[in-house]
Amino acid sequence: MNLDLIVSNILNPPILFFFLGMFAVWVKSDLEIPAPIPKLFSLYLLLAIGFKGGVELSRSGITQDVLLTMLAAIVMASIVPVYSFFLLRWKLDPYNAAAIAATYGSISAVTFITAGSFLGQLNIDYDGYMVAALALMESPAIIVGLVLVNVFGSGGGNRDEEKKTEWGEVLREAFLNGSVLLLVGSVIIGLLTGENGWTKLKPFTQDMFYGALTFFLLDMGLVAAKQIKDLKKTGVFLIAFALLMPLGNAALSLPIAYVIQMSQGDALLFAVLCASASYIAVPAAMRMTVPEANPSLYISTALAVTFPFNIIVGIPLYLSAINLFWS
Q1: Residue 327 buriedness (CB in 10 A; 0-12 / 13-18 / 19+)
Q2: Which residue from 237, 131, 224 is spatially nearest to 184, judged by alpha carbons?
Q3: Which Pfam families match (predicted)?
Q4: pLDDT score of 90 more than 70
């Protein structure tokens, strides 16, 4: 792997502010960000990236490349939880295995945005419709995870009557939770308004974007550092899983990207989507529908291990592999 890519990725203001947040926790600084502000920036980032993706989609149109990318995204989001579940069952009960498997089948929008920033630094182009792939990968993992719980929980679908899954609520959470709704809605609005909408919103959705991302990653550094203490509860097995699963998922995604002839920039974003883990949408759904699972397991592995690994090492590593095979 080219070490220059890692250095270039680390010497990126948003990444450095992520480390600053972690450092603040380790030295027990009183640095805190009031809770509503990270939520506001999270919503802003989803709106901005969704809107930009919609505009890019209006420019490119619904082509064969777009449809193939969307299909690949849905397939990966559906199969990753399945093989992850059976790997995790080696050490965990079916509830925790299904919750963690769903977490790793879904995606991290912040990792995706960071990868986009990394590509921007290197002047590597990517297609805006990759945002639509991001939106499509949020929900399937939740549904697959809950199917696994119902099939394998308590020896095969014998959960207590009061704990049976309410599928209406599951589907509502999977497709209409706030993050998914805002992201998909922004894509549609960008698609409908096109260039005219882009001109009007550009100062808000483009010029402010990296400042908001930087501040959001500062908060993520604070949160990730606080979650690290929970790793003691997860044990070596889950830490190894959280480090190896992104590599395995990225390795599986790259041949798919190569076969359907994604560009290098698109291939990196696709690999990052497959390699990342959700720490917002899926945990919210699992807390509601699988109370038997321990949140500290699936949140700490996704946020304190996989997220930093991907933004520090994973993104440049995946690009090195792409440069090797696409050249």
Answers
A1: exposed
A2: 131
A3: Sbt_1
A4: yes
Q: Which two tokens stand for residue 231?
A: 């790793």
- CB-based contact 233:92 (threshold 8 Å): no
Residue 3 buriedness (CB in 10 A; 0-12 / 13-18 / 19+): exposed
Identify the burial level of 133 via C-beta atoms within 10 angstroms of its C-beta, where 0-12 means exposed, 13-18 middle and 19 or more buried: buried
Least confident of 163-177, 252-266, 305-319: 163-177
Question: Do the beta carbons of residue 140 and residue 233 sit within 8 Å?
Answer: no
DSSP-assigned letter for residue 301 = I
Compute the residue count for the chain: 327
pTM of the model: 0.80
Dihedral (C-alpha) 17, 277, 61, 254: value to the nearest 10 degrees? 100
Beta-carbon contacts of 5 under 8 Å, excluding residues fewer than 6 positions away, are 316, 319, 320
Neighbour-count burial of 48, counting CB atoms closer than 10 A to its CB (0-12 exposed, 13-18 middle, 19+ buried): buried
pLDDT digits (tens, 9 = 90+) for 32-53: 888 788 878 878 887 887 888 7
Residues in CB range of 17: below 8 A, 6 or more apart: 214, 215, 217, 218, 221
- Residues contacting residue 8 through CB under 8 Å, at least 6 positions apart: 118, 121, 122, 316
Helix (H, G, I), strand (E, B) or coil at 13: helix
